[in-house]
Amino acid sequence: MKKLFNYSIVLFVLVIVLLLIIPLPAGLVDVAIILNISLSMMILVITMIIKEPLEFSVFPSILLITTLYRLGINVSTTRNILSHGGSSGAVIKAFGDFILQGNVVVGLVIYLIIVLMQFLVITKGAERVAEVAARFNLDAMPGKQMAIDADLSSGLIDEQQAKRRREKIQREADFYGSMDGATKIVKGDSIMSLITTAINLIGGSVIGIVQSGQSIGDVLTTYSIATVGDGLVGQIPSLLISTATGMIVTRAVSQGSLNDDVSGQFTAQPYAIMIAGIATAVIAVVPGMPKVSMGIVSIGLVVGGYYLSKRLKEVPKEAEMAMQMGAAAGMGGMAAGGEEEAAPAPVTEEEYYKDVNNVYNLLAVEPIEMEFGYSLIPLADESVGGRMISRIVIFRRQYAQDMGLVIPSIKLRDSSALSTNEYCIRIKGEEVARGEILIDYFLALEPENPERVIDGIETVEPAYGIPSRWIRPEDRERAELYGYTVIDPLSVIVTHLSEVIRQHAFELLTRQEVVHLIENTKKAAPELIDEAFPNLVSYGMFQRILTSLLKEGVPIKDLETIIETMIDTIQETGLPVKDLDSVTERIRTALKRTITRMYCEDGSMKVITLDGELERTMATSISKGEGGYYMALSPEIIQSLIRQLAEQLRKFNGFTQNPVVLTSQVMRIHFYRLVEPFYPKVRVLSFNEIASNIQIQSVGSLRLEGPEMR
């Protein structure tokens, strides 16, 4: 029995095929017709209840099956009508008698109106919408894929979320492609209905007059009832399915069920309702109009619109009160790590600070703070659906997995010093970045050569400085079609915050955090930790080594390798512990697989190299001072190098790889310190830090310029 249930759809399709061949009695045809109407109603209701088309992704297949089912019923009813003198069951007769009402001409006209309305209006419109939706979804796929890759690379989503979003995009493209073809089935069904009606009427009349010898009037009466009844029992389900088809392909931008969307969007426009009521009252003045009926409708619209407008005015006040309470009670002490600070409110400020211990609370400096203007508070306030904290938690987890550093809690607070759309990011109490967000818009990042320029407010993406435009939500699909990458306001803020944290991560590595990392490593390698700390290296010295690695974007996740290399370097070479540069360079060499992976694409790495004569000149300029070794180049050479580097960096604009300068191991740290104040995002690597199986591709070279510099 269970196996039969698993193959119930297969058996149902086989039964439909049999309907085309085996004659059925009138009673079974009635059951099939009733089932057809019920199934069509159920499908229409489902398309109005679902929130997005993919919830009913099987619809194209269902559309084919139900169409085949209706055609099978049409064949059976046509066979019975022509074989049994216009009789094909009680359902068809009831529909025919009800529509005709004793008048054949009126009944046929009403039937033709229903058929043509479905064929010319609903079916043709659904076909066009499905065709456009399929083309737009296919064209927008590259932009959507780029947006997913951008969110994944910035840590806003993990691999599983990215995989689910990619699968959804692929399913949407497949669904709309299937719907584009399925609408042709609906169109063919409508045409077939007209042909079947003509066959029933003409064929029945010929049979009745020629074979049965009946009068023309009796024949037309008998077969017109059967023809109209048969046409309606097939056309009504077809009309329901056509409506369901149009419904599901027009639900692309819905946010809830049809009932929620319609009621929510209509009630959000009370003035339009009142204006419609006033216009109805004006039309009622026209002589001959039913003034009572139109007056009732007019009064109902005006009163309903006025009531809705009052409700809409009360909602912002309630939201403002809730926001103020949230800002006062929660935002000031909200941490993105999940901690909440609650302190009893003092009676007065003077009494609170009479206690000297309370004054010390003013001296605390938060590692990371983010301040918002009033309009941006809902993005962070979870009580009103804000998702910023959850997005930051995802980024913290991703960053810890990638870099080996746990980002401290991020304080989120409102600030009256900022404009309503501004936000500010602070590291240890000092502002390091600021941006402005239009919360009701989307940010469209301009491609290098857009097909067309989309209308919007020109701006610059705050994290990477990409030229962009703020566009309205309804222009999002069109922007993606033109090649823009479209980002929502929350993602813009989180991306900016994550980029700022990456740039300043080395400042967030405190002595206490170093101790936590060492204690965590001690669980897996206790002997290694005991050998290194605190006898060989102090926590402070180790903090400086990790800080140097983080400043240049090198992950510190593999602490065991870092500590082992540090111990071996100090013991083998006899270097003093204070010579941290040499120790750090050896550690970087030990981490070459990790470093190579970060800047390698498809087995090759694009780099900028240094001319041999330039390296020799730089090597001879290295001097030793009180703070260690430094490179003493003339201002002319430094100016020339920075200018050349700026020209070479432009070559990386078309690449996804970060700019890399390749030097010898001896010169690496000195050249990095030379260019870091000018180009902090440029990575300087040595040959020893690149895995042997990687192909190095030079895109440019730096050299000495002018005879006076040689």
Question: In a few lines, what is going on in this structure?
Answer:
The chain contains 27 helices and 15 strands.
Question: Can you put this structure into words, describing what you see?
Answer:
The chain is an alpha/beta fold and 710 residues long. It is 61% helix and 10% strand. It is built from 27 helices and 15 strands. Strands 1-3-2-4-5 form a five-stranded mixed beta sheet, covered by helices on one side. Strands 7-8-6-9 form a four-stranded antiparallel beta sheet. Strand 13, helix 27 (665-675) and strand 14 (683-686) form a beta-alpha-beta unit. Helix 3 packs antiparallel against helix 4 and helix 21 crosses helix 23. The protein is elongated and about 125 Å long.
Task: Let me know the average pLDDT.
Answer: 78
Q: Determine the N-to-C terminus distance.
A: 92 Å
Please outline the major beta sheet: 5 strands, mixed
Numbering strands along the chain, what is their spatial order in the largest sheet?
A: 1-3-2-4-5
Estimated radius of gyration: 37 Å
**Approximately how much helix is present in the residues?**
55-70%
Features:
710 residues, five-stranded mixed sheet, 10% strand
Spell out the blueprint of helices and strands:
Elements: H1 2-6, H2 8-19, H3 26-49, H4 59-83, H5 90-100, H6 104-153, H7 159-211, H8 216-249, H9 258-267, H10 270-283, H11 291-329, E1 334-335, H12 349-352, H13 356-359, E2 368-372, H14 377-380, H15 388-403, E3 410-414, E4 422-427, E5 430-436, E6 442-445, E7 457-460, E8 467-471, H16 476-481, E9 485-487, H17 489-503, H18 505-508, H19 511-522, H20 526-532, H21 539-551, H22 559-573, H23 580-590, H24 592-599, E10 604-610, H25 612-620, E11 622-625, E12 628-631, H26 635-649, E13 660-663, H27 665-675, E14 683-686, E15 695-702
Parallel strand pairs: 2-3, 10-13, 10-15, 13-14
Antiparallel strand pairs: 1-3, 2-4, 4-5, 6-8, 6-9, 7-8, 11-12
Helix pairs in contact: 2-4, 3-4, 3-8, 4-7, 4-8, 5-8, 6-7, 6-8, 7-8, 10-11, 19-20, 20-22, 21-23, 22-23
